[in-house]
Design goal:
This protein has 246 residues and is an alpha+beta fold. It is 15% helix and 59% strand. It is built from one helix and eleven strands. It is globular, with a radius of gyration of 25 Å.
């Protein structure tokens, strides 16, 4: 009887340990899954056409058209139209100044806005860097929202025609807040991996996977976008320029 009772106690302890391990494992799984549940995700398609037009020997105008589609925003949710004037101050350095009109569509909660932009593009062999500063003008206030966007892109050439693999990373930092909604701080990161394909002597295409992540800020949920990113670049005359992501 004593041995039977002792065995029953051992069985009970074993069952209790198994239950404890199950409880701990379940808690760990739930903790690991919590960020995933808290994060919004969306599958998107980003399209862009750039046309480079020569103005002078070292000056070019780039005309830009952008359309972005998503599942969650109900298909087309953003368009952008604009241009940027680029001045090649050295063989590997370009300064730029431009304007862009941004339109919100369908279920996009953002407002239309106007943007001025300045950038410095520097090329170091297969590596291209760009530092861009945006000034955002919003219809609901007269404050200017500034945005700093450093970008680095690496191109791995595959043949003499210009076929190449590329990878890029861009960060978005907002140095000030506004009453119309811009919050100061690190706002998002954008990464692309893809292939650059020459379609002719003056036409190139960049096709790749774009991942954009916006961390949770001010109580909002984190957002991650998975996009097929397609950019078509048309060079008029000798106006070819370093290709950097938008």
């Amino acid at each position: 009887m004593a041995s039977q009772e002792y065995g029953d106690r051992l069985d009970g302890v074993s069952v209790g340990l198994r239950n404890l391990r199950f409880t701990i494992a379940t808690a760990l799984i739930l903790l690991a899954a919590a960020p995933v549940r808290a994060q919004q995700e969306d599958e998107q398609l980003w399209l862009q056409v750039n046309t480079n037009v020569p103005i002078a020997e070292r000056v070019r105008l780039t005309l830009e058209q952008i359309a972005r589609f998503g599942d969650r925003p109900d298909v087309l949710y953003q368009t952008e139209f604009g241009g940027i004037l680029g001045w090649r101050v050295a063989d590997r350095v370009e300064l730029g100044f431009g304007y862009r009109k941004v339109g919100a569509h369908n279920n996009n909660a953002a407002e239309n806005e106007d943007r001025l932009r300045q950038h410095v593009v520097a090329t170091f062999g297969p590596v291209v860097t760009r530092l861009r500063v945006d000034e955002r003008f919003h219809p609901e206030g007269d404050e200017i929202g500034f945005r700093i966007r450093p970008l680095v892109r690496y191109n791995h050439r595959l043949d003499a025609r210009g076929l190449a693999l590329f990878v890029s990373h861009e960060g978005f930092y907002l140095p000030n807040g506004t009453r119309w909604g811009q919050r100061r701080g690190y706002e998002r990161m954008r990464k692309i991996v893809g292939i650059a394909v020459p379609l002719g002597r003056q036409v190139n295409a960049d096709v790749g996977y774009l991942n954009q992540y916006r961390p949770s800020r001010g109580g909002s949920r984190a957002q991650m976008d998975h996009a097929l990113n397609v950019q078509l670049t048309i060079n008029v005359g000798t106006s070819a320029a370093p290709r950097v992501d938008d």
